[in-house]
Write a structure and sequence with these properties.
GO molecular function: magnesium ion binding; terpene synthase activity
Largest sheet: none
Cofactor: Mg(2+)
Shape: globular
Strand content: under 5%
Organism: Psidium guajava (Guava)
Radius of gyration: 23 Å
Pfam family, one: Terpene_synth_C
InterPro entries: Isoprenoid_synthase_dom_sf, Terpene_cyclase-like_1_C, Terpene_cyclase_plant_C1, Terpene_synth_N, Terpene_synth_N_sf, Terpene_synthase-like, Terpene_synthase_metal-bd, Terpenoid_cyclase/PrenylTrfase
Number of helices: 22
Structural class: mainly alpha
C-alpha cells in the first residue's frame, strides 16, 4: 500500500506513518542492511528494495543474488513473472556505482519487457509501456501521480477510500496551482515582453510546469513563485546572450549585472534596460519577502547565483565571438553553470521555509556532488537534444562537437558515450540520496526532482521546453488544466 500511496501523490499526508513502517521493514526484513532476507519472490524483493532505497536506506543489492543462476545471470525461470520483472526493472534504476547485479537486472528486465509488451492485457500493458518510456525513479512526481490515478482505478482490487483521497487531493492542489499561475501570468503580461522583446521566448507556463515538477506541495507556494519568475527571466536572459545581443552589448550587460545597481541601466541599450529593470524588480520583491520572514541573509545567495549565470552565458558568447574551440573539459567547466541548475537549486533553497539554514546554502554554493551530477545530466541531455539545431545557426560548440574533437570519434560514438555519462551521473544522484545525507532529505529530494524534470523535458532527443510539442502540451494539460474525474 505504501507504493500505491506514493505513486498516487498523497504520501505527503502520511509521511510519518510511511517512515515508521519502512524503518521497521528495514530492520525486520534484512540483516544489518545486507541482502540476506527471507523474501523469495522477485516482485516483493524488488518492490521492497525500491521503496527502501527511495527513502534513503542503504539496502544491499545482494538481495537479488538468489534470483540468479550459476552463471551469474538472472534465471530465465523468472521471465514469465511479468509483475516481478517489471518490479525488478523499476528497482534497477536506483543503482549506484559498483552494483553489477543491478546493471544485469536492468538488461534482463528491459529485454524481457520489450519482448512481451505487445502481448499483455490492460492495465498491465499500459504500465509496461509507460515504464519502458518513463521509470518511476526519473518521472516527475505530479505527472506520474496523474497517470497512476487512472491505472490504479482500473485495478479491480483498488481501495475506494485511497482512490477518492487521491482524486480529491489532486484536484484541490491543481486548483491552487491554477491560481498561482494566473497570478504569475498577470505579472508576466505586465512586463509586456512580447512587444518590447519580441525575440525572446514566451515560456511562462512551461517554466511554471518545470518548477511544479520540483515543488508541488501546497506549503511551498512562495518558493514556486520565486522560482517561476527567475526561470522565466532566465529564459529571456539566455535569448539575449544567445540570439539577440551583440558582443559589445553583452559585455556591458554582463558588467551591469555584476554591479547589480539600477543606476547602471542608463549605460545599456533600450531593450536591455527593459530586461534589467524587470530583473532588479524581481529580486527587490524577493528581498521584501525574505525580510518579512527574517531570512534576509538568503538574498546574497540568490543574487550571486544570477550573477554566475550571466557570467557563464557571457563566457560562451566570448567563445563564439573569438571562434574559440574549447576542449570537452573546458566546455563542461562553463556549460554546467550555463545550464542553470545551480541558479534554480539556490533559488529553490532561498524560497523554502526554515528547514533551510545558512550552512545548507553554503553547501549548495560549493558544487556538491549531487548538484554537479544533476547539472551533468541536464547539460548533456540538453546538448544531445539540441546540438544539430544549434549548429545549423551561429552558435558555440556543444558537448557533442567538443567530445568528437577531443576524442577523435564520430558523432554517433560521441552521442553514445555522452549517454553513458548521463547514466553514470544518475548513479551519483542515487548515491547522494542515501543516508546519511549532508542536508535534510526534503532538500535532497528537491535536487532529485530538478533532475527528473530534465529527464522528462529532454527525453527522446527533443527539447520540449524550447519547442513545446504535443507531448509537453499534454503534460501541462494533464497537470494544470484537466481535473481528475
Amino acid at each position: 500500500m505504501i507504493d500505491q500511496i506514493q505513486r498516487l501523490g498523497i504520501a505527503h499526508h502520511f509521511a510519518s506513518e510511511i517512515d515508521h513502517v519502512l524503518k521497521q521493514l528495514s530492520e525486520t526484513c534484512f540483516v544489518h542492511n545486507t541482502g540476506d532476507s527471507d523474501i523469495n519472490d522477485l516482485y516483493t524483493a524488488a518492490l521492497l528494495f525500491r521503496l527502501l532505497r527511495q527513502h534513503g536506506y542503504r539496502i544491499s543489492s545482494d538481495i537479488f543474488n538468489k534470483f540468479m543462476d550459476a552463471s551469474g545471470k538472472f534465471s530465465e525461470k523468472h521471465a514469465s513473472d511479468v509483475q516481478g520483472v517489471l518490479s525488478l526493472y523499476e528497482a534497477s534504476h536506483l543503482s549506484v556505482h559498483g552494483e553489477d547485479v543491478l546493471d544485469k537486472a536492468l538488461s534482463f528486465s528491459s529485454t524481457h519487457l520489450e519482448s512481451i509488451k505487445e502481448q499483455l492485457s490492460a492495465p498491465l500493458t499500459t504500465q509496461v509501456h509507460h515504464a519502458l518510456k518513463q521509470t518511476i525513479r526519473r518521472g516527475i512526481p505530479r505527472l506520474e501521480a496523474r497517470r497512476y490515478i487512472s491505472i490504479y482505478e482500473a485495478e479491480p482490487s483498488h481501495n475506494e477510500a485511497i482512490m477518492s483521497l487521491a482524486k480529491l487531493d489532486f484536484n484541490r492542489l491543481q486548483k491552487q496551482h491554477q491560481e498561482e499561475l494566473f497570478d504569475l501570468a498577470r505579472w508576466w503580461m505586465g512586463l509586456d515582453f512580447k512587444m518590447k522583446l519580441p525575440f525572446a521566448r514566451d515560456r511562462l507556463v512551461e517554466g511554471y510546469f518545470w518548477i511544479l515538477g520540483i515543488h508541488f506541495e501546497p506549503e511551498l507556494a512562495v518558493a514556486r513563485r520565486m522560482m517561476t519568475k527567475v526561470i522565466a527571466l532566465t529564459s529571456v536572459l539566455d535569448d539575449i546572450y544567445d540570439v539577440y545581443g551583440t558582443y559589445e552589448e553583452l559585455e556591458l550587460f554582463t558588467q551591469a549585472i555584476q554591479r547589480w545597481d539600477i543606476d547602471c541601466i542608463k549605460e545599456l541599450p533600450w531593450y536591455m534596460q527593459v530586461f534589467y529593470k524587470a530583473l532588479i524588480d524581481v529580486y527587490v520583491e524577493i528581498e521584501e519577502i525574505l525580510a518579512c520572514k527574517g531570512r534576509s541573509y538568503r538574498l546574497y545567495y540568490a543574487i550571486e547565483a544570477m550573477k554566475r549565470q550571466a557570467n557563464s552565458y557571457f563566457a560562451e558568447a566570448k567563445w563564439l565571438h573569438q571562434q574559440h574551440k574549447p576542449t570537452m573539459d573546458e566546455y563542461m567547466s562553463i556549460a554546467l553553470a550555463s545550464g542553470g541548475h545551480e541558479l534554480l537549486a539556490i533559488t529553490s533553497f532561498v524560497g523554502m521555509p526554515d528547514i533551510v539554514t545558512k550552512d545548507d546554502l553554503d553547501w549548495l554554493f560549493n558544487d556538491p556532488k549531487i548538484l554537479k551530477a544533476s547539472a551533468i545530466i541536464g547539460r548533456l541531455m540538453d546538448d544531445l537534444a539540441t546540438h544539430k539545431f544549434k549548429q545549423s545557426r551561429q552558435h558555440a560548440d556543444s558537448a557533442v562537437q567538443c567530445y568528437m574533437r577531443q576524442h577523435g570519434v564520430t558523432e554517433q560514438e560521441a552521442e553514445n558515450d555522452l549517454r553513458k555519462q548521463v547514466e553514470d551521473a544518475w548513479k551519483d544522484v542515487n548515491e547522494e540520496c542515501l543516508h546519511p545525507t549532508t542536508i535534510a532529505m526534503p532538500l535532497i529530494v528537491g535536487i532529485l526532482n530538478l533532475t527528473r524534470v530534465i529527464d522528462v523535458l529532454y527525453k527522446d532527443g527533443r527539447d520540449h521546453y524550447t519547442n513545446p510539442h504535443i507531448t509537453m502540451k499534454d503534460h501541462i494539460k494533464s497537470v494544470l488544466m484537466d481535473p481528475v474525474q
